[in-house]
Write a structure and sequence with these properties.
The protein has five helices and no strands. It is an all-alpha fold.
Length: 79
Amino acid sequence: MLRYCSQIKSALFNFTSLLQVIILLICTSTYIHSSWPAILDKNKTGLLGVFWKCARIGERASPYISICCLIIAFNQLLG
């Protein structure tokens, strides 16, 4: 049982997985904002404002986000 609990903790606090989730959130929010801007533009504050902020990051830092996506892809293929 103790071994199983330690495996859960390592999965919850895995830094590379956290980075992957953040990058995918930014990419998804940017895609949704480019396809349907009205969905995110009316929710700039609150909990849904996180998606609007991620879309702004994706629009302004898109070359860096693309490089991060490529690094994550190669990491998944080779690791």
